[in-house]
Design brief:
By secondary structure, the chain is α/β, with parallel strands linked by helices. It has three domains: 50 residues, Beta Barrel (M1 Pyruvate Kinase, Domain 3), CATH 2.40.33; 171 residues, Phosphoenolpyruvate-binding domains (TIM Barrel), CATH 3.20.20; 117 residues, Pyruvate Kinase, Chain: A, domain 1 (3-Layer(aba) Sandwich). Helices cover 39% and strands 20% of the residues. It is built from 15 helices and 14 strands. The strands form three sheets. It has a five-stranded parallel β-sheet. Strands 12-11-10-13-14 form a five-stranded mixed β-sheet, sandwiched between helices. Strands 3-2-1-4 form a four-stranded antiparallel β-sheet, covered by helices on one side. The longest helix is centred in the middle third of the chain and has 18 residues. Belongs to the pyruvate kinase family.
Length: 378
């Protein structure tokens, strides 16, 4: 069996366990001779092409970006991709390197860091390093579980989600969430609980992989995942972050004022929604941390940014051409009413956090009764 990582022969010793295809096949190293690694199959199975290889416990020195990855960045730039996922980053420096290549390619894509290495989840400092360097974190449970072991995976997932929420970074939970639906039209109860637990912990998104890429029931899998996620949101609310517990992150006076007004207005009332005028999405990300159970409408005149904001929990991007920096409530409400977004809510908090996004010198938050305004519009 051949592979495209020749350095492996320098990084394994007899007794090591190699894991192929997310650990579905396991090999025990018996001897290393020149450019050959002799192994014994301890867990067998069918192996197809282009499958991954890991060392049990982690420690491989493979770079986060291969030559093929660097070529793919130019392809992503050409098709104007919203996001580029980086596999196996070791630290924040790997993400910053990828960002420099993305910018050099002329792309405005955001970066999704796929957390798959044991060293990234070995301590909170390492988690925070990669979270703060990334635009989105993906809990890539396949390769991560291979490296740290399945017994450690639940704790790592929960801690990653918690740190992402604390640091204001969107997070995706992925891999084998509905694995049985590759072959079956209905999920198992365990899969239902897996999705619900991730939603309850505060994940922004849940993701399907082989279920839709190669499964027999891709449409059914998407519908089932959406049904379970929406049911979980109705059954139990995700924990909202407490802004007053993170003074270093929310240090600007304008942020405190905006957060105070926003959090005071809501009190977990699902009949209240927020319309946030945004230039770069930072304020929308912030608001989604504190109001995971309310609708947030992100109004932007940047279509690319609107696409990127879809990953945020509870956020509905709306492409909106502002007339000026002081658009009246009527224009905003008219746009939302045209989009059919003002049903089943009685008040709307309209906000623009310019100082937080560093695009202006003032912040505003004010509450508008929906029925009163929509009656005037009609």
């Amino acid at each position: 069996m051949g592979l495209d990582y020749p350095q492996l022969v320098q990084e394994v010793t007899p007794g090591n366990i190699l894991l192929l295809d997310d650990g579905n096949i396991q090999l025990k190293v018996r001897a290393v001779n020149n450019n050959n690694i002799e192994t014994v199959v301890t867990v067998g199975g069918k192996l197809s092409n282009r499958k991954g290889i890991n060392l049990l416990g982690g420690g491989l020195s493979a770079p986060a970006l291969t030559d093929k990855d660097k070529q793919d960045i130019h392809t992503a730039a050409a098709i104007q991709a919203d996001y580029i996922a980086v596999s196996f980053p070791r630290n924040g420096a790997d993400i910053e390197y990828a960002r420099r290549l993305i910018v050099a390619a002329g792309s405005q894509a955001k970066i999704v860091a796929k957390v798959e290495r044991a060293e990234v989840v070995s301590c909170q400092a390492n988690m925070d390093d990669i979270i703060q360097a990334s635009d989105v974190i993906m809990v890539a449970r396949g390769d991560l579980a291979v490296e740290i072991g399945d017994a450690c995976l639940p704790g790592a997932q929960k801690q990653l989600i918690a740190r992402c929420r604390a640091l204001g970074c969107p997070v995706i939970t992925a891999t084998q969430m509905m694995e049985s639906m590759i072959e079956n039209p209905m999920p198992t109860r365990a899969e239902v609980m897996d999705i619900a637990n991730a939603v309850g912990d505060g994940t922004d998104a849940v993701m399907l992989s082989a279920e839709t890429a190669a499964g027999k029931y891709p449409e059914e899998a998407v519908r089932a995942m959406a049904r379970v996620a929406e049911g979980a949101e109705r059954s139990f609310a995700a924990n909202a972050e407490n802004p007053w517990q993170s003074p270093s992150y929310y240090s600007q006076t304008g942020r405190w004022i905006a957060l105070a007004a926003t959090t005071a207005a809501f009190h977990n009332d699902k009949h209240l929604s927020v319309a946030a005028l945004t230039d770069n999405g930072q304020s929308v990300t912030l608001l989604s941390r504190f109001m995971p159970n309310n609708n947030i409408y992100a109004l932007t005149d940047n279509p690319a940014l609107a696409g990127q904001l879809t990953v945020l929990r509870g956020v509905t991007p709306v492409t909106y051409q502002r007339q000026n920096n002081n658009d009246g409530d009527e224009n905003i409400m008219q746009k939302l009413q045209t989009e059919g977004l003002l049903t089943d809510i009685h008040s709307l908090l309209i906000t623009r956090l310019s100082t937080f996004e560093k695009t202006g010198e003032s912040d505003c938050c004010h509450l508008v009764p929906v029925k009163q305004v929509t009656t005037a519009l009609t």
